[in-house]
């Protein structure tokens, strides 16, 4: 049968359509793919893997670079000196010996300042007891600039004069014993961090173990981080729903405090962990632990941050770390968790609770026994009371100024220098108490507003020129304007002794009559200067001795003009005043402004019998390891002839016996041989007194900061404070050996003529040999009141 072409065409087209459908279905999922398609999918997988690999490699490279950077920070930061250590300033060491004039109460106060503990039976360093008039103590060993001072077990017997006997615990006499000097201040770096560096070898073993048991029990077994600690902290935080616990090791804490900030972030924690492992890789456990003990922050004292257990022990207990007892150690360890929260000064209840918890942990970990922990928990906080950041700001100001001329600022704030000074804490404390009390009393007596009066006080040791105490204002703890150094006020009659010394050096005697009548001095510009006496009266022809003793202005000005302003100013410089002097007649009466310290420098030459000994505050400077850098030995130069000085001494002592300074003997022992001079300026704006005994020179200024008038003279103001200060510090009588070339003669006090012992108005005074008056007054030997030959009794002169 022949085929139908239409039929065939249709069939063929029909059979081709399914083929197209099959082709179309083959591209759908689930169908077998072609080799070309499988190759494309594999390539895509490799490209993603390659991309991820590249990212990992880049991240690993970055991590390595970052680790190298952190490693450099760790190794660089721990090279050399880890911490900036402030310079420390110390007072004088108290020397104890038989015959020392010091009451038992004063010595006990000194011991308390040094952090000594009063116990029944002293056996450890830093302990003492008192039984009747006997004090027993165990002194601390310390290194001073002049050597090591070993610990001594001493017995001291007291009487009403002071220390009667000093023996050791074997009954053998102790020639000399020393107490370590009190630290009176520091010179901090810019960030105000203060610390006392310690070595781990000096830290009690129980303290080290207690610290580790509380802060990081696995310290000696981990590699910087503690995985179990991290997991434990993570579980606690997840369970509580907030950041309740940290997993930081001691090493991580050190890294955070030393290198990083306290920011709470995963980035900081990651850096902390990595740096902790690097730190452990490079350094031993003991090195890291020692650094931690010196870095740890414990408290804030004003602007000063207290770091490290060495300073913490001194700050809170007044003792070195090695002397602390168990309950004290536990308190320091407990403060780490929250220095502000557990500060025993501000939150004693919290601090006590935290301390007891630390003791429980130490007992649980076997660091101490349960009985030891129980005993410690019964103890009070036992912190030192009266913590003060700056005890003596005026004196420290003087120390800083002297140091700044010798050392760079960075040396003073970072190298741990030790500055040994002359300050006497006992005298300083007494001076402050008297100064504040007397200013208040003067304001009350004269009905002045509170705080109307200001003032300053300087006390020195005449032979050495060392400053023993300094008050820069009535706010004795205020570290601000220091009037003792910076307040340059007219000194009034304090310069009169220079005028009279100049006269004695130029042919005058103490018996020379001088003119006290009205004086008018005309200036080149036509102006006139007319000084007047304080009582507005003229006194005729007083003897030179009387004119100084009673502080006559007219007589002094005329005398100064006669001997010459040039000679007066030259003498002023020779005696110790270093600045330029105004060459005006008014300078003779004290128009020149001076600071109390400058006056002390000037009068120190009088007190040292004509030897100029510049005032100073520093004895020595050492490095942190006690190597001596510099010592400041005594320097002196004789600038006044011994005979002339002896005559002036007599005159200045007469000021105190019969002149403007005689109030002092109302309060002080009549056997003291005081010397000094009052000073009062125009309108009584300034009240001055400068005076001395054998062992102390003191200068007092009182006035108003705004230069307002006051009702005070030198006698009614500054002298009162001076007298009470001397009464408080118990000076010795002024003694001196009379130089060769002195003769004594009886003269008439009214005209200076030679007379006899029993004549009216007879006084006996010293003269340079060959200068006694020859004229006689014609006395027939009439008997008068007995004459007190006080000066010769002290100075060993022979009666004529």
TrEMBL record:
Residues 1-41 are annotated as: Disordered. SUPFAM superfamilies: beta-lactamase/transpeptidase-like, Lysozyme-like. InterPro entries: Beta-lactam/transpept-like, Glyco_trans_51, Glycosyltr_51/Transpeptidase, Lysozyme-like_dom_sf, PBP_1b, PBP_transglycosylase, PCN-bd_Tpept, UB2H. GO terms for molecular function: penicillin binding; peptidoglycan glycosyltransferase activity; serine-type D-Ala-D-Ala carboxypeptidase activity. Gene3D superfamilies: Biosynthetic peptidoglycan transglycosylase-like, DD-peptidase/beta-lactamase superfamily, Penicillin-binding protein 1b domain. It catalyses: Preferential cleavage: (Ac)2-L-Lys-D-Ala-|-D-Ala. Also transpeptidation of peptidyl-alanyl moieties that are N-acyl substituents of D-alanine; [GlcNAc-(1->4)-Mur2Ac(oyl-L-Ala-gamma-D-Glu-L-Lys-D-Ala-D-Ala)](n)-di-trans,octa-cis-undecaprenyl diphosphate + beta-D-GlcNAc-(1->4)-Mur2Ac(oyl-L-Ala-gamma-D-Glu-L-Lys-D-Ala-D-Ala)-di-trans,octa-cis-undecaprenyl diphosphate = [GlcNAc-(1->4)-Mur2Ac(oyl-L-Ala-gamma-D-Glu-L-Lys-D-Ala-D-Ala)](n+1)-di-trans,octa-cis-undecaprenyl diphosphate + di-trans,octa-cis-undecaprenyl diphosphate + H(+). GO terms for cellular component: outer membrane-bounded periplasmic space; peptidoglycan-based cell wall; plasma membrane. This is Penicillin-binding protein 1B.
């Amino acid at each position: 049968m022949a085929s139908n072409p239409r039929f065939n065409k249709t069939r063929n087209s029909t059979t081709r359509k399914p083929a197209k459908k099959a082709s179309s279905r083959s591209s759908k999922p689930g169908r077998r793919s072609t080799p070309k398609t499988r190759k494309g999918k594999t390539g895509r997988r490799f490209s993603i893997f390659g991309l991820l690999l590249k990212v990992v490699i880049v991240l690993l490279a970055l991590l390595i670079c970052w680790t190298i950077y952190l490693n450099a920070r760790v190794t660089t930061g721990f090279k050399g000196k880890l911490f900036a250590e402030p310079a420390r300033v110390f007072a004088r060491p108290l020397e104890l010996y038989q015959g020392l004039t010091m009451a038992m109460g004063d010595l006990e106060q000194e011991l308390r300042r040094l952090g000594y503990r009063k116990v029944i039976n002293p056996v450890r360093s830093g302990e003492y007891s008192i039984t009747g008039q006997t004090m027993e103590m165990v002194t601390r060993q310390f290194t001073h600039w002049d050597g090591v001072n070993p610990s001594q077990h001493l017995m001291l017997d007291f009487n009403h004069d002071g220390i009667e006997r000093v023996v050791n615990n074997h009954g053998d006499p102790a020639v000399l014993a020393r107490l370590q000097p009190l630290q009176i201040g520091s010179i901090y770096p810019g960030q105000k961090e203060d610390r006392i560096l310690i070595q781990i070898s000096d830290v009690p073993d129980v303290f080290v173990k207690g610290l580790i048991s509380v802060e990081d029990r696995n310290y000696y077994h981990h590699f910087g981080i503690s995985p179990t600690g991290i997991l434990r902290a993570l579980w606690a935080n997840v369970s509580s729903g907030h950041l309740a616990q940290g997993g930081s090791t001691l090493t991580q804490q050190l890294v955070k405090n030393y290198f990083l900030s306290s920011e709470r972030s995963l980035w900081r924690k990651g850096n902390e962990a990595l740096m902790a492992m690097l730190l452990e890789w490079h350094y031993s456990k003991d090195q890291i632990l020692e650094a931690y003990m010196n870095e740890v922050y414990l408290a804030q004292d004003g602007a000063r941050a207290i770091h490290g257990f060495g300073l913490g022990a001194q700050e809170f207990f007044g003792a070195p770390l090695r002397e602390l007892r168990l309950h004290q150690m536990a308190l320091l360890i407990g403060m780490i968790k929250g220095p502000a929260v557990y500060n025993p000064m501000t939150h004693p209840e919290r601090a006590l609770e935290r301390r007891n918890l630390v003791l429980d942990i130490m007992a649980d970990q076997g660091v101490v026994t349960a009985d030891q922990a129980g005993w410690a928990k019964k103890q009070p906080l036992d912190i030192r009371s009266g913590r003060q950041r700056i005890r003596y700001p005026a004196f420290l100001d003087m120390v800083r100024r002297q140091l700044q001329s010798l050392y760079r600022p960075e040396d003073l704030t970072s190298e741990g220098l030790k500055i040994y000074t002359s300050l006497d804490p006992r005298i300083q404390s007494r001076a402050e108490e008297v100064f504040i009390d007397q200013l208040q009393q003067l304001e009350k007596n004269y009905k002045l507003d509170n705080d109307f009066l200001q003032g300053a006080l300087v006390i020195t040791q005449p032979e050495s020129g060392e400053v023993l105490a300094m008050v820069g204002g009535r706010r004795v703890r205020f570290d601000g304007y220091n009037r003792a150094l910076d307040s340059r006020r007219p000194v009034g009659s304090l310069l009169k002794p220079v005028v009279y010394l100049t006269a004695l050096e130029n042919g005058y005697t103490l018996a020379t009559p001088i003119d006290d009548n009205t004086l008018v001095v005309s200036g080149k510009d036509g102006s006139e200067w007319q000084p007047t006496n304080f009582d507005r009266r003229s006194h005729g022809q007083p003897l030179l001795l009387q004119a100084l003793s009673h502080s006559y202005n007219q007589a002094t000005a005329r005398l100064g003009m006669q001997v010459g302003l040039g000679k007066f100013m030259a003498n002023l410089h020779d005696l110790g005043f270093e600045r330029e002097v105004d060459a005006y007649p008014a300078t003779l009466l004290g128009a020149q402004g001076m600071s109390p310290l400058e006056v002390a420098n000037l009068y120190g030459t009088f007190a040292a019998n004509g030897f100029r000994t510049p005032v100073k505050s520093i004895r020595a400077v050492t490095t942190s390891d006690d190597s001596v850098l510099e010592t400041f030995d005594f320097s002196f130069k004789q600038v006044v002839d011994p005979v002339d000085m002896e005559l002036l001494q007599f005159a200045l002592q007469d000021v105190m016996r019969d002149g403007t300074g005689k109030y002092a003997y109302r309060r002080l022992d009549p056997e003291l041989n005081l010397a000094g001079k009052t000073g009062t300026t125009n309108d009584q704006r300034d009240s001055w007194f400068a005076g001395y005994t054998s062992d102390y020179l003191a200068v007092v200024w009182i006035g108003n900061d705004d230069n307002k008038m006051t009702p005070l003279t030198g006698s009614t103001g500054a002298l009162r404070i001076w007298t009470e200060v001397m009464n408080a510090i118990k000076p010795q009588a002024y003694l001196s050996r009379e130089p060769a070339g002195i003769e004594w003669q009886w003269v008439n006090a009214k005209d200076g003529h030679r007379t006899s012992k029993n004549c009216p108005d007879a006084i006996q005074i010293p003269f340079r040999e060959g200068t006694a008056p020859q004229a006689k007054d014609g006395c027939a030997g009439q008997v008068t009141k007995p004459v007190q030959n006080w000066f010769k009794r002290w100075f060993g002169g022979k009666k004529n």
